[in-house]
Amino acid sequence: QDVQPEKVQFEVRTTPQNLDLNVDGSTFATPHTVTSVKGIRRNITAPRMHAKKDHIYLFEQWGNGYDHNLYTLLAAENMTPIEAKYKAIERADGTGLLGRYFKIENDEKYPFPSFIQVDSVINFNWAFESPDERLEEYQYAMEWLGEIVPLVSDVHTFHLFADDGVRLYINDEKIIDQWKAKSAQALTGEIALEAG
After folding, report:
1. By the 8 A CB rule, do 169 and 190 touch?
2. pLDDT tens per residue across span 58-113
3. How far apart are the first and last CA of the chain?
């Protein structure tokens, strides 16, 4: 007689709704019901940022207060829904930042960009590909230049998730400095800014 594994269901949610969550490599809009073998370890990843038409949503924490964006659980019966909470930030009227895309050869950046474009949102995942046919895989660098408009006067935290070298300057002050080859990691930097 065949023995069938016991199945359970649990729900994944976001606040606000209709944002994506990733469950073991598959992405779903929320709310979503997951069917799982009981007792199996499941990994739920909340993207650190969602960019929508009028707002940007930044991941803050899970419903239980855990603030890492990867949540691991063992599937069980009668589970409380797994909820990722996001903070909504209204988009300004700006068009974006000026992106300058460079070739790299012999570990040196070309003095002039291969092309320039305005990027409305800086949220790319090129993985093992090139951002553009004019650039080779792994052999490119980018700079983004522009202005941001703080909504409130306060200490602001900037978040980067990047691999290899990355630096962030705000008002000519270097607030993130990880200029070395490395695997992808989350980085933060803080600076006090005045509204407007």
Report:
1. no
2. 888 999 999 899 999 999 999 999 999 998 877 766 778 888 898 888 777 777 88
3. 71
pLDDT tens profile 122-145: 888 887 788 888 888 878 888 998
Say how far apart CA 184 and CA 133 lie, in whole Å. 23
Distance separating alpha carbons of residues 152 and 194, to the nearest angstrom? 7
In Å, what is the CA distance from 9 to each residue of 6, 29, 134?
10, 17, 47
Could you give the CA distance from residue 117 to residue 42 in angstroms, rounded to a whole number? 40
Residue type at 43? N
Amino acid at 181: A
| E strand intervals along 38-153 | 41-45, 49-51, 55-62, 70-74, 82-90, 97-105, 108-109, 115-119, 140-145
The residue among 33, 65, 61, 56 whose CA lies nearest residue 46 is 61
Residue in the structure block whose two tokens are 């933060």: 188
Per-residue pLDDT, 92: 65
